[in-house]
Each structure stands twice: as C-alpha cells, then as structure tokens.
Amino acid sequence: METENNTVVTEFILVGLTQSQSIQLLVFVLVLIFYLIILPGNFFIILTIRSDPGLTAPLYFFLGNLAFLDASYSFIVAPRMLADFFSEKKVISYNSCITQLFFLHFLGAGEGFLLVVMAFDRYIAICRPLYYSTVMNPRACHVLLLAPWIGGFVHSIIQVALILRLPFCGPNLLDNFLCDVPQVIKLACTDTFVVELLMVFNSGLLTLLCLLGLLVSYAVILCRVRGSSSEGKSKAMSTCTTHIIVIFLMFGPGIFIYSRPFRALPADKVVSFCHTVIFPLLNPVIYTLRNQEIKASVRKLFYQHLA
To answer: Which residues form the G-protein coupled receptors family 1 profile domain (predicted)?
Structure first.
C-alpha cells in the first residue's frame, strides 16, 4: 500500500542485539535486574526529593526531573526489547517505529538540555553565590525546566519530519534492536546524503557542542573554587565530578552514534544498548550516591515507611 510520501514498507523487522541464545539470555537477565532494582530506585529518588522539605534547592528540583526523564526514557526501548527476546520474528510497524524514534530523541535531547540547565545552576551557585537566590528563583527554575522539553521536541520533530519525507520500498530489515535514525535512513529508496548531513548537524554537532560547552563551564567552576575553603572546595568538587561523569555517560555514546557518517560499525549495538537501556537508569543513581543530603533523606524515608 503506497502513501503520499511513496512509503510502501508498512513494517520493519528488527535483527536484535545478538543472534546468540546464551548472550540473549544474559542480556535479558541484566535488563530485568535493572528494571526490578534500579528503576524503582529512580522513582524513590523522586519521592524523596518531593517529600523532604530540606531538599527544596533548585539542584534537587532539577535532579528530580532528571530522574523522571531517565525513567521515562528507559520505557521507550527496554520493554519491547524484553518482549522481543521471546519472539522468533521481531516485527515493528512503520508507525510504531517512527513513534519510538520520536520519543527516543525527544526525551534524549530533553535530558541533554536539562544537564546544560543544571550546569548553569551550579555555575551561579558557585561563581555568583550572592545572586543565586535572585537568579534561580522558583519562577526562573520552572522556565528553565520548560526549555529542555521545548528544545527536545523541536529537535525530535525535525528528525521525524526529515524521515517522513523519505520513500521506503524495501528491504525492511533493521540491523538493530530499536528504530533509530542511522539504521532507518539506510533503508530509504533514495540518495540520503543530504538527509544524513542534516541529521549529523541536528544530532551529532549539537551533542558535541553541548559536551564541549559543559566541560568548559565545569572547568571554569573548578578553577573558581581552587581558592575556596576546604569544605566548600570538597563539596563543589564532588558535585562537579558527579555532573561530569553523567555528562560523559550521556553525550559520549551520542557523539559516537550521531556525529559520524551513518556506516555500520561492530560497536554500534553495544553503544546503543548502553545509551538507551543501561545509562539512563544509572544517571540519577550516580547523583544520589555522591550526594550526602539525598542519601540521608533516602535513609530517613526508608526507615519511616519501609523499615
């Protein structure tokens, strides 16, 4: 059946992460463990931040939203991936594929922009402490939180609009376990050089610029706290180190996937798996494990309601 954009492919067949049954079983168990342990942990972090009156600073407001974004992001790929382990033929419809691709980039870009907002918050808190309460007032925090959602939507809708213009007339075999830009574009029945270039600018270059900007901002912060008191320096160093770890987990795989020509490499599936399934669930946990205030609040909440 042909549509207005000459699409005759109505479904795609996913190759999956691996053809090895033993590796598939190992991955299934690993993902299931992450879902049963770390995903509830993310929601517990959100509950802790919302229920503790002592965690009202903008940092915790943004961290709670990061945990929500990461938890939402993890629902895009992993549930279907778990279900596909039991399917001999992994089929996804054209519309479902485009929907998955949209939310993958919508929430992924939103998280990246939120990390930029969190870096701005830390810069004001450490480098301009006298202006912090004025600049980071509740109204400003809500406006800053809205920016990642709008930015993620604009970024993703551009990706989808470019793909919807492409004709797909076969083959329909996607060499991955999810629908993502590099694999879908290669199945188009036309020359995709211009579209690939636009995608690299929209995703790869944007991701690279965000990473470099964040690293420069944290370098400035670390240079600024060198002369601070021992306690203030230690706290700032811990916070910045945590943010930098999450930044590399978030932007490193994104740069590998989207900032180069869309040619298949042996590491593509592993990087995509870490980027879409493992790292999103780990990011808020990393923040929590290195933040004394949140750890204390988590323990208090646990003993109040569960112990």
So the answer is: 41-287
Report whether pLDDT(2) > 70: no
What confidence tier does 92 reach under pLDDT thresholds 50, 70, 90? very high
pTM of the complete model: 0.89
Domain 11-305, CATH: 1.20.1070.10
Q: Residue 24: how many CB atoms within 10 A of its CB?
A: 16
For 84-93, b where at least 16 C-beta lie within 10 A, e where not — what string? bbeeeebebe
The answer to which of 46-50, 87-91, 92-96, 228-232 has the lowest mean pLDDT is 228-232
pLDDT > 60? residue 116: yes
The CA-based angle 42-140-213, given to 5 degrees, is 70
State the Cα angle at 252 between 113 and 30, rounded to 5°.
100
Residues in the chain, how many? 307
Alpha helix positions (H), the chain:
21-33, 39-51, 58-84, 94-127, 132-135, 138-164, 181-185, 193-199, 206-224, 230-258, 268-273, 279-289, 292-305
196 vs 186: CA distance, rounded Å? 9
Q: What one-letter code names the amino acid at 12?
A: F
Look at residue 1 in the predicted model and tell me its pLDDT.
39
Q: What is the 3-state secondary structure (H, E, C) of 247-268?
A: HHHHHHHHHHHHCCCCCCCCCH
**Residue 285 scores a pLDDT above 90:** no
Task: Specify the pLDDT at position 307.
Answer: 54
Rounded to whole angstroms, the Cα distance separating 209 from 215 reads: 10
Q: Return the structure tokens found at 42.
A: 């993310």
- Structure tokens that stand for 169 in this block: 């007339």
